[in-house]
Amino acid sequence: MAEHVYGMHHIGITVPDIEEGIRFFKAVFGAVDVFRTGPFDVDEAFMQRKLGTPGHTRIRDLVFLRCGAGTNVELFEYEGEDSSARPRRNSEIGGTHLCFEVEDVFASVERLRAEGIEFLDGPNTVTEGPLAGFNWIYFNSPWGQSLEIASFSSLGYETNTTQRIWSAKLMG
């Protein structure tokens, strides 16, 4: 039997400007600082062998943020890479989006639109199938990271199984 997995600890995101990233996650998700490291004093071998990055790159700063009762967000700012490169689209291999559970996606959208956040179409509500009852909408961070906010009280799949997906409400 495999070692017990407790859950997802953190999601690491490389951002072009760590201060901008911190401000964004605080404004949008109410994130709080947990800790910050500043620059790493390491050599090329460390970067290549331990992080899988080109040897000439360096970590300029790293911060851990707590967003509600879920997974931590770890922001990195590197030097030595093209900071203008865009994140992969959701449809590309390696493309990702992060979904944050909120109390009410409709109220969150109103608040965030008032703060200048631009959304894709929605909010949307799934009415049939395993995700019935799921309210969601996508948007992008200032550096192009695809994000989603969602809310639900129950989901369609719950009528057919006792298994439940992780929810902040279940951790309450």
Automatic annotation (TrEMBL):
InterPro entries: Glyas_Bleomycin-R_OHBP_Dase, MMCE/EMCE_epimerase, VOC_core
One Pfam family recorded for the sequence: Glyoxalase_4
MF GO annotations: dioxygenase activity; metal ion binding; methylmalonyl-CoA epimerase activity
Species the sequence originates in: Tabrizicola piscis
BP terms from Gene Ontology: L-methylmalonyl-CoA metabolic process
The protein's name in its UniProt record: Glyoxalase/bleomycin resistance/dioxygenase family protein
Gene3D superfamilies: 2,3-Dihydroxybiphenyl 1,2-Dioxygenase, domain 1
Keyword annotations: Dioxygenase, Metal-binding, Oxidoreductase
VOC domain segment(s): 7-152
SUPFAM superfamilies: Glyoxalase/Bleomycin resistance protein/Dihydroxybiphenyl dioxygenase
